[in-house]
Amino acid sequence: AQSVAQPEDQVNVAEGNPLTVKCTYSVSGNPYLFWYVQYPNRGLQFLLKYITGDNLVKGSYGFEAEFNKSQTSFHLKKPSALVSDSALYFCAVRDDTGGFKTIFGAGTRLFVKA
Amino acid sequence: EAQVTQNPRYLITVTGKKLTVTCSQNMNHEYMSWYRQDPGLGLRQIYYSMNVEVTDKGDVPEGYKVSRKEKRNFPLILESPSPNQTSLYFCASGAPGGGVNTQYFGPGTRLTVL
What pairing do the DSSP bridges indicate for beta strands B4-7 and B19-25? Predict the structure, then answer.
């Protein structure tokens, strides 16, 4: 069965410092991995995805994520955090076995302090 | 403007009174899906649809119905709502694009069942 774990409920970082939001997954086949962001009172917005190819994926707003198959991880990173990055971040996974069911993690709230 | 719309945005109802939450997308996407968001649980998929007249259960389908009679619309029906269905609901759409999709989310519907 597919599953996604975001081990941190909350991540605190100072503006200008690098940030990492962690995600690990479990799927039967090969994973399709996604990061979405939710700002207050808004729907989710797509940030980036890994399908195949280069393990380092670049996305919107300066975010990137690294796919690590051996550790079954897909951590979200940004070299220099902004206060405006404060939001709720979700990792999601589908597998390539033919179904289109998507599993989301519980979410990680990012606070960036000025 | 490309978007997913949901109505109503807020709804307070009583146990057992049938309700429908509408979802419409103008991007000609084949894939549509409903999720509920609850604190600490992230997003859980209720139902999804790969195309007109094709629907499938997600992780938490009990107590919900859907229909896909037109490509652009994917209403969520609660025949007899109960308090445990109080939640924030999101509709999403996406284009599979070779078996993989990025999802575009609506603004959400906050439902309270008394």
Answer: antiparallel
